[in-house]
Amino acid sequence: MKAKCWRSVIVVLSLIVLYGCATARAGEAPGRHASLPPPASSGRLRTPQHLANAGIDLAVPPSSASPSLSAAQALALCSTGDPICVPGKAPTIQLAVATVYGSGRATSSGPLVPSIVDVLAYVMTWTGVPCLPAGGVPGASPAPVQSCTVISLIDAGSGKVLYSYQGTNP
Fold first, then answer.
1. Rounded Cα gap, residues 29 and 37, in angstroms
2. How far apart are CA 169 and CA 66, in angstroms?
3. What letter would DSSP give residue 77?
4. How far is Cα 92 from Cα 73, in angstroms, rounded to an integer?
């Protein structure tokens, strides 16, 4: 193919991409969710939970705990694309005291020091959702779709995304 023909192909492809970008609806950029249904339920955690595979411990928040953020505001963060959220499915949202022991920094002697310890957080949970693909071998058949749980922890004071998890057994 001659150079002039290649340039024409590149110009046409560029115009197609620009047209697609110009006509995309606001709030639907990749990783953003224009709207999510309201939570299936929300409230305070009533019993402690140890989510071994997720590396998360959840404790019952003290009755005096007063978050700066509401559950609705935590859910609205899904529109930013920062937390992992599942579009089209309502999460459960619970206020809890979270410790994430599955991530942090390693000490020189080896143990991991958690970076999230006893933080008042909203725990947004979606269950029974298809697992997002990760890894794999090029050319291999795709793995069968499994049912996963997605968990996103949002700091109830600052609104900062603390941690997210996806897996078959939290």
1. 18
2. 31
3. G
4. 14
CA dist 1 and 3 (Å) reads: 7
Evaluate whether 93 touches 123 at the Cβ level (below 8 Å): yes
Q: DSSP assignment, residue 22?
A: H
Cα 23 to Cα 2: distance, rounded to the nearest angstrom: 32
Ordered by start, the domain boundaries in the chain are 32-133+144-167
Whole-prediction pTM: 0.73
Exposed (0-12), middle (13-18) or buried (19+): which is 167, by Cβ within 10 Å? middle
Within 13 Å and on the Cβ side, how many CA atoms surround 114? 14
Q: What is the pLDDT of residues 107-149, one digit of tens each?
A: 888 888 898 999 999 999 999 998 877 766 777 777 767 899 9
d(C-alpha 34, C-alpha 24), whole Å: 12
Residue with tokens 């794999």: 136
Distance CA 95, CA 154 (A): 9
